[in-house]
Amino acid sequence: MRTALPAILTALMLAACTSAAPPSVGYSRNLEPIPGSITYGGQPRTKLTKAPVGSIVPHRFRDKFGRQVSETYVIEPDRSLRLISRRIDYDLVTDR
């Protein structure tokens, strides 16, 4: 058993090193807009012409359950918005 343990640990470490990389650098998940998101139902009609490409746009709102939602968008070269992160603040007293 003493000789098998290092072999098992080595195999686990190698498996972790050879796993697939995330599809994009920085943020690995593709978030879908939810009701209240800026891009819910499509891109906004107005183009963000004055903001530089790559600018970060924060957005805060309450969802249908009353939870505070904080989203972050980035401005793409075609002036569309891409949702890159979302944080939902849960109320530990009312959320179960």
TrEMBL record:
The keyword Signal applies. It comes from the Bacteria. Residues 1-20 form the signal peptide. Keywords: Signal. This is Transmembrane protein.
